[in-house]
Amino acid sequence: MTAPRTVLLTGAAGGLGTLMRELLPAYGYELRCLDVRPVEGEPDAVVADLSDRRALREAVRGVDAILHLAAISLEASFEKILRANIEGTYHLYEAAREEGVKRVVFASSNHAVGFTPRPPGEPPIAPGALIPVDTPRRPDTYYGLSKCFGEDLAQLYWDQHGIETVSVRIGSCFRRPSTVRMLSVWMSPEDGARLFHAALTAGDVGHTVVYGSSANTRIWWDLGSARALGYEPRDDSERFAAELIAEQGELDEGNPDHRCLGGHFVTRPPIWPH
Prior knowledge:
The mean pLDDT is 94. 48% of the residues are buried. This protein is 32% helix and 14% strand. The protein is α/β, with parallel strands linked by helices. It contains 8 helices and 7 strands, in the order E-H-E-E-H-E-H-E-H-E-H-H-E-H-H.
């Protein structure tokens, strides 16, 4: 696929969006930013909620592709997740359909498979024991459930309308990991930009699901489908391991918080008021 020139970046004021605003222009992209709040340093950003379908359609008009990062990124009540993550993602795909945009990169999450047991044993995990991308979805939160919906919506819009999507099940994308669990799922911001660039430019993706992380020594999942897009991760969380393990200790398979991909979200889900 020819590299898109103009990309709509939703969630541009968020943590991941801010990192991508810094890194993606080096790949030749002109970013059109959208967020529900003003985007610092971007006076021309579209400030609109994903429920504002007129503003959303205007934001989508004329772009070559969409990088959809906008969402409530932590667990919240179902009503809030429904409005922002589920209905908002539907509105975005409708705007893409109406304006003829044929490539979306959707920020899914490892929490779509959060109840999947992590591979047993000490790292590095043998390639054959890594969690495949086609493992059954087992969301650990309403947030994870919304990402399952987004993946299914992407499949529907590919099958029904020919809109291609790469759904990226992001682990955690920060400057550095903050927990021992994160050593297995961390994606450096630089690798995040590399993966999003590959997802925006790879040909014939249909609807492709990939895991999003760096090439970590302690990785739990298979990056094969991401590498097939042309993604070549360069970073490894292992340089942070000694410090974090000294502070927090190694993961313990006897600890319920350490048994599954979703970490503590599988054992202590918050109870939200209706």
